[in-house]
Write a structure and sequence with these properties.
The structure is a homodimer of 150-residue chains. Chain A has 150 residues and is mainly alpha-helical. Chain A contains five helices and three strands. Chain A has helices at 26-32, 36-46, 74-80, 85-97, 116-149; strands spanning 72-73, 101-105, 110-114. At the A-B interface, helix 1, helix 2 and helix 5 of A face helix 1, helix 2 and helix 5 of B.
DNA sequence: CGAATGTGCAACCGTTGGGTTGCACTGACC
DNA sequence: GGTCAGTGCAACCCAACGGTTGCACATTCG
């Protein structure tokens, strides 16, 4: 009971842990990744490129040129996805709480961008846990073989 | 809309895909990993070692010696965790559907074991997606800089 | 055979969660 | 200053989920 310690169940009161930056809890991140709509949001954020930023609408002019790599707003995402802006906002809140997304207030709008590094870190953690399990299984098999041989 | 393709949303009818083996859908796996009790189950399965297999009970004799690395039953897990056997059974069903756990019927009992390799594969996939996002962000930043200079 | 252990299915309950609608508010633009 | 786009909060609905209880079925052991 010491190798893989993913959840915060056995964690101490956690007193001196300011909201440093990244992942809150792995399970929260998994819960955030457990929804297809949320994946769609993440993917839309991930391939949000310059030129297709604000998308349709913006009749006045080009407007958001310049800081093109700043991400998308909830409304822009709602334009791309078949759900309400409010639903998107909730999803973005979940994703941000899980540390998978970051938000910046620009003018009167809030731009979100995906944090791929957090995803990568989470993946690496999963990888390590899986490897630990496999290793333990191997060890058990070895012991069993040993016992069999006498 | 071509780099990372985690969910099965945009997937074709998927006609000729027999239940090859492992992971059904990544989102299913994440949903499976999004519960603390399920993590506890996985961990209990992961460090299920010889000697502590059937746990307390078994008054008759040693019984399950031999195939000690075969995994734990739902009842044994229910003995270790503060939930009902039925709850454990449901969790195991979810985990098995997600491809994170495997079951073997021995006598009248069903033994489960954790599939660490699947976890590892899932982690690797996450890692790749995160890296792809980061790469795309870098490319966007480069383009923005180019535009600024031009 | 009878008793015990283990499993599986089904009903049920409380809570969470995705999604919508509606409204109030604030910052930008004419 | 008035209007318009964009956000935020709150209420509400319905489906899914975690969990329990209860019972019926199989299988092993005395």
């Amino acid at each position: 009971m010491s190798s893989a310690t993913p959840p915060g169940s056995a964690a101490p009161p956690d007193p001196g842990t300011p909201p440093a930056s990244g992942t809150a809890s792995p399970v929260a991140a998994f819960a955030a990744l457990a929804d297809e709509t949320r994946w769609a949001v993440l993917q839309a954020l991930a391939d949000a490129g310059p030129g297709s930023a604000a998308g349709a609408g913006a009749p006045g002019g080009g407007a958001d040129a310049g800081t093109s790599a700043a991400g998308l707003t909830a409304s822009a995402l709602a334009d791309r996805l078949p759900v309400t802006r409010q639903a998107i906002a909730k999803h973005l809140a979940v994703l941000e709480a899980a540390g998978l997304v970051e938000s910046r207030i620009v003018g009167r709008e809030r731009r979100y961008r995906a944090l791929g590094a957090e995803l990568t870190a989470l993946g690496r953690r999963l990888e390590r846990i899986g490897d630990a399990w496999e290793a333990r299984l191997g060890r058990i098999a070895a012991i069993a073989k040993e016992l069999e041989r006498g």
